Known about the structure:
- The protein contains 4 helices and 6 strands.
- The protein is of the alpha/beta class.
- It has a 6-stranded mixed β-sheet.
- A hairpin with a 7-residue loop joins strand 2 (34-41) and strand 3.
- The chain is globular.
- The termini are far apart.
- Residues 12-143 form the Pyruvate/ketoisovalerate oxidoreductase catalytic domain.
- This is Pyruvate/ketoisovalerate oxidoreductase catalytic domain-containing protein.
Amino acid sequence: MARYEIRVSGFGGQGVITLSKMIIMASSIYEGLAATQTEAYSAAARGGKCWAEVVVDLDKSIEFIDYPKALKPYDFLIVLSQESANDIKANFVKSDENTGFLVWDPSTISKFRGAKKISKALSIPVQKLAVEKFGNIVFGNTI
């Protein structure tokens, strides 16, 4: 069983849960893979801590996923807020050849110590690009 485990974290209102649902839609509808998503957020719906996890089974013969939670270390980690970045440690992502990717937004994260220790870390200013290209930060989760 080859699973691909993804975690998206940020704060409510950034589109964290929407992004995770787009990933499972792309995996299941367009690639024909079994995929599932779980989500959690703090009591504050907007502005509070929020995260979602996606599990995709890469074996097309698998019809369902037996355990829907992504487990650390993740294959892919997307971090969109400073509060989430403060929680990240280097051992949160895998170090295998085709996994262990970290994507984070420097326009919302000023200090990210964990990113320096992860070899496959990519800094993309998604909120800044969303404003420049589309005139609204709402599109940051789709960049």
